[in-house]
Specification:
mainly alpha; single chain; 3 helices
């Protein structure tokens, strides 16, 4: 059981890395409008977006962006990040206690 929990923790860690990568790409795109990835970066970024799109899009449908004057704050990415970090900590605690 402990091995399964550590593998699950590692998978959640990889998921968190992908989410952080998506966050960085979205920030770069929002500040540098003309930036377009080229070469192998296109494939990597597309893979990151394909993997992370389902939960982010689901939350965007459930929780619309928060209007703050001329800016709309999208909370879906933040919620997915927080839930992922909490899940990692829960799995880690269970794995440590299972040893």
């Amino acid at each position: 059981m402990s091995t399964f929990l550590w593998i699950l923790y590692f998978v959640l860690f990889l998921w968190l890395v992908l989410l952080l990568g998506r966050f960085v790409v979205e920030m770069v795109q929002s500040f540098a409008h003309r930036w377009r990835p080229t070469g192998p970066a296109v494939v990597v970024i597309e893979l990151v977006f394909i993997v992370t799109d389902p939960p982010v899009k689901l939350l965007r449908k459930l929780i619309p962006p928060l209007p703050l004057g001329p800016v709309r704050l999208d909370l879906s990415m933040l919620i997915v990040l927080i839930v992922s970090m909490i899940a990692m900590q829960v799995v880690r605690a269970l794995a440590v206690n299972a040893m």
